[in-house]
Amino acid sequence: MAHFAEIDENNIVTRILVFEDTYTDSDCTALLGGDWIQTSYNNNIRKNYAGIGYTYDSNLDAFIAPKPYNSWTLVESTCLWEAPVAYPDDSKLYDWNEDNLSWEEITH
Length: 108
Description:
Elements: E1 2-7, E2 13-19, H1 25-32, E3 35-39, E4 55-57, E5 62-64, E6 73-75, E7 80-82, E8 94-97, E9 102-105
Antiparallel strand pairs: 1-2, 1-3, 4-5, 6-7, 8-9
């Protein structure tokens, strides 16, 4: 099965549908109207699997998740967002604190 994302006039993903493997972007557009771009669960194409609210960047030919925090930057090689401080590597769970620009351990 092939997965396709419909994008609006701002290149924002509005829905994702599954079609037969033989379908192409233009087949989906001809069938349903709108603009459709193929996406992949395996990240074989367009770097990331599209999600509703993601943006399609035609220059990078990639689907990009919404920016999680103002301080994070986009890594163009992966089209993933990266915090300004690396996630701790100590098997604990952390949440990002945008005010302090740091990872804070989650305690229960």
